[in-house]
Design brief:
Blueprint (H helix, E strand, L loop, with lengths): L1 E3 L9 H12 L3 E4 L7 H6 L1 H21 L4 E5 L28 H19 L6 E7 L1 E3 L12 H15 L3 E4 L5 E2 L1 E3 H14 L6 E3 L7 E2 H11 L6 E4 L14 H6 L8 H14 L1 H4 L2
Parallel strand pairs: 1-2, 2-3, 3-4, 4-9, 5-8, 6-11
Antiparallel strand pairs: 7-10
Length: 287
């Protein structure tokens, strides 16, 4: 099995570099995680770059997987690719029913094309590789990207809370804290990726997520982070900053029907473990 995570690839060498990786490792199975990613504000700033870079990455990975005779390639989509205006909960049949939220349309459309390209490869009689797409909700955990400029929600909150504790200042959260999200612990998602690789026999996308009942406001998550970090100061919501999409509730019915025994890590426990990793690694390295 080969997991592709490369992020920084020059436009000129992307095709050659990808071919060289496949030639060197000769993988039989691929988990395709390579992408240009970032939080809300990075997506809003760099829409065109998100679109171009992800289109280049996806086209080259899938082409090389097919030409190299890989048995199965599992690619990662995102719930942000779903239409902005749609009935909830989201399910796997809704991906292309309307435009995504404008805040991240560059990334969303590139990921939608990854789903389309996977389907077209599966329909091509000359292609022997099975291409499957998975759709995780918001991911967090140890070894995450905790950069304040580029991180996703929970790692960004952890880093901000750490700085507030260092400075003795307020813990300021951008936005109202009201938007709702489903968060999945990275270790749970890793286990589900392996399950999809080994046991998911369909070629259509599948949502990998906690249940609808586990959707939580970002404000509540910020308070969980503060509790896990033993933060005693004031938590402030800066409503002058954009909230982004209010909700994107996803159904995990298909997943739980096919894998009913799977147990998710409770969010408080997962946040605590993420905080511990951050404090032992990222925060210590900055001192």
């Amino acid at each position: 099995m080969f997991v592709l995570r490369t992020r920084k690839i020059s436009e000129k060498s992307v095709s050659e570099d990808t071919k060289a990786i496949f030639a060197k490792y000769r993988p039989t199975h691929v988990i395709h995680l390579a992408a240009m990613v970032g939080g809300l504000f990075k997506n809003m700033r760099l829409k065109l770059k998100f679109f171009h870079d992800n289109m280049d990455i996806n086209r080259n990975v899938l082409r090389c997987a097919s030409e190299s005779g890989v048995e199965k390639c599992v690619s990662c989509l995102s719930t942000c690719i779903f239409p902005d205006e749609v009935k909830y909960p989201l399910n796997e049949d809704m991906i292309h029913l309307g435009p995504p939220h404008p805040s991240n349309e560059g990334y969303a459309y590139a990921k939608r094309m990854l789903d389309v390209e996977s389907r077209l490869y599966n329909e091509n009689s000359e292609n022997k590789t099975k291409f499957v797409s998975v759709i995780p909700t918001n991911i967090f955990g140890p070894h995450d990207n905790y950069n304040l400029e580029d991180s996703h929600v929970i790692p960004g909150l952890i880093h901000k809370c750490h700085i507030a504790m260092e400075k003795g200042s307020d813990f300021v959260i951008w936005g109202s804290g009201k938007p709702l999200r489903q968060f999945i612990f990275s270790e749970d998602l890793g286990a589900l990726f392996v399950w999809v690789l080994n046991s998911y026999s369909e070629l259509t996308p599948i949502i990998l997520s906690v249940g609808e009942e586990d959707e939580v406001p970002i404000g509540d998550v910020a308070l969980m982070v503060a509790e896990a970090m033993n933060f005693k100061g004031k938590v402030v919501f800066d409503t002058s900053k954009a909230d982004g999409q209010f909700k994107k509730t996803a159904s995990n019915k298909k997943l739980m029907t096919l894998n009913p025994e799977f147990k998710f890590t409770p969010i408080k426990e997962a946040i605590k473990r993420s905080v511990e990793w951050f404090e032992q690694n990222y925060a210590t390295a900055r001192k």
